[in-house]
């Protein structure tokens, strides 16, 4: 082994290289399934890549743009031959930008984006409508190869209906063109009209008693039939 020259950079140890490789492999294995649903990686020229490179805190991994906590901020599934988005798609509900164009998607995405309240840019095939319709977005732009929906609107503020939720409930957005009414603290039930905490003990007590009563009734009926025969 040749002696090390003074002032030369330290020689990397094999175990250090192995540790770095293991960390990278571990990070790859920890990626959400939606990020590896399609082979390949995000193209440098794509809108998801451009968004991700705006700050050093965001990094590209497979088909996703992640922050330092591993939260999905961008998803690029363009040209993946997808006919539907699959069961893993809700993993991307934190995404700000999603690219789905160049896929043979069905034109029925209305209920696919439940909970995608952070989504601000959605790129779709030209024959697929923006979820929620044009009224759910500030801008809908048509291009030869895609349709871009930008600026998700908060329907709770734009419907103009002040009584959209009951008196003891409040309106919260639930994705493009979607909203839900949430009961205030201390209220529950139909139209948030019941006051007080919801007692699980009482609920399961009533359910258990009813089940026991029906079971005894059925057992007695079957016993009578058996004796009669």
Automatic annotation (TrEMBL):
Residues 1-30 form the signal peptide. Residues 152-193 form the EGF-like domain. One of its GO terms (biological process) is positive regulation of osteoblast differentiation. The keyword Transmembrane applies. Keywords: Disulfide bond, EGF-like domain, Membrane, Signal, Transmembrane, Transmembrane helix. The keyword Glycoprotein does not apply. Disulfide bonds join 183-192. The chain crosses the membrane at residues 198-219. This is All-trans retinoic acid induced differentiation factor. The lineage of its organism: Eukaryota, Metazoa, Chordata, Craniata, Vertebrata.
């Amino acid at each position: 082994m040749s002696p090390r020259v003074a002032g030369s950079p330290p020689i990397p140890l094999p175990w250090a290289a192995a540790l770095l490789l293991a960390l990278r492999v571990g990070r790859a294995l920890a990626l959400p399934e939606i990020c590896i649903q399609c082979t390949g990686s995000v193209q440098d020229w794509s809108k998801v890549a451009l968004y991700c490179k705006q700050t050093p805190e965001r990094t590209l991994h497979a088909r996703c743009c992640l922050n330092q906590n591993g939260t999905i901020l961008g998803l690029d599934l363009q040209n993946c031959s997808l006919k539907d988005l699959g069961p893993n798609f809700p993993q991307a509900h934190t995404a700000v930008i999603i690219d789905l164009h160049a896929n043979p998607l069905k034109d029925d995405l209305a209920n696919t984006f439940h909970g995608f309240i952070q989504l601000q840019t959605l790129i779709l095939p030209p024959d697929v409508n923006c979820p929620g319709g044009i009224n759910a977005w500030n801008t809908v732009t048509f291009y030869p190869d895609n349709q871009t929906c930008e600026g998700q609107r908060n329907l709770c503020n734009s419907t103009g209906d002040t009584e959209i939720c009951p008196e003891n409930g409040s309106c919260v957005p639930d994705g493009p063109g979607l909203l839900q009414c949430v009961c205030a603290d201390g209220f529950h039930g139909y139209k948030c009209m019941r006051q007080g905490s919801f007692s699980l003990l009482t609920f399961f007590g009533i359910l258990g008693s009813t089940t026991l009563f029906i079971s005894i009734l059925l057992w007695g009926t079957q016993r009578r039939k058996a004796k009669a025969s």
